[in-house]
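Two records follow; treat each independently.
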Amino acid sequence: MEQIKIAALGDSLTKGVVLNEENRYSILKQGFINIIGEKLDLCIRNYAKFGCTIGFGHTVIDRHPDDISAADYTLLEFGGNDCDFDWRNIAEEPDLDHNPKTILETFKEQFKRLIERVRELGSHPVIISLPPIDSENYFSFFSRFMSDNQKSNVMKWLGGDIGIIYRWHDMYNKALFEISEVTRTDIIDITSAFENYNGDIRSLFCTDGIHPNEEGHRLIANSISDAAKMF
């Protein structure tokens, strides 16, 4: 039987990036892409990039149309960076309006177009949902070099509720399920695996509150393996 070919587009999650003990980002040898590649005997080309937004997915297709066309399936994992803000600017000017890196409606339209382009190239798109985030740890991480006044400014902009960060991120994740339904695109729900985890969910994340650690990546790999019937 011929080996199934997969193209993976996404951000640091798909890249396998984690925050190590020295507070530096590094790439796991056994990120979920590598795990499922070995476990399911898949040939995977990983085009994910740290910090990228949905626009990078279009850049990958522009650069590698033949590779996408040759892939039986194309994994699409975006949203975690798209929904993020420039927290330094917010800390400096909390009274101004601030937009995320990709406005939600723009994110939806660009994601739908990305799906169309993958299909036009003859590959089968598959959306990967997002893991939840830990608002408190993420706030502590991105504000660690801010002054007390700057932290207060960010809290002012958040209306005094750190949980807004989680709910905002979750809104983009919910958009993925909406996009899946509207475009009739398969989606692998890794979110539920985290939310239903039988233990302390924080143990699945790095100290920045947003990147799953090695154990988190194993959980993601198991979720994808359970959905492998679509492959």
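The next record belongs to a different protein.
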Amino acid sequence: STVTPSRVGYTALVDRAVLGALNVGRTQPPGPVEIPVTQKVNLRKLRSSLAWHARASRIAPRDTAVHYADGRVVITRSRVGVDLDLAAATTQVQRAITSGAREALTLPLTRVAPAVVRVPTTVFIDRGRFRLVVVRSSGIRTFPVAVGMPAYPTPTGTFHIVQKQRNPTWYPPDSRWAAGLGPVPPGIGNPLGTRWMGLSAPGVGIHGTPASYSIGSRASHGCIRMYIRDAERVYDMVEVGTPVTIV
């Protein structure tokens, strides 16, 4: 690409130099005198022109991302980006223009680091396969689950964990099926098992269950049930804020 002096607001104050030369001749003895010509470049125009030319060579950084498709986890690894070092390039081109140089310049580039490098901890729940998948930088773990029955389906979408409780108390939800039921304290027979991970989907969470026979079926009122030992493992793998995608 070519950056022309006219496009970047180059001016040379020749008239001022000539006037200076005339004044010198009046005040000093005859003889050679060097009169500098003041040169200016519009830095705003120069930066804008360089940024426009740099678009063709720019490589955007790419963050590490995790997706779930057709029953499998797809991890896209991060990539370092490349962009023009605009400040250094502006100085370099300005000097070339004001010095009269016409040789091609190799402009300085800079590396742009991605924002996410490590594999982010992510949970995927596949309702059709009755599967919960935890993806972490250390690997992928898969667990069997039960999901919502047809009358109370587990919602699909992307949510996140908003609450974690050890040995939770079960409180009946404001729903017709729970009418007349009272709280169940922690212990054997608690519908939530020993761990509760509440989601941003209202009334929905991941938890253990004493009804282990229900795993692998549509049996809950919208929550994701796990074997108690598996829920305890997942509890230790995730944090509040961990994204949970249900498909």
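Discussion point: The mean pLDDT is 88. How would you locate this feature using only the token line?
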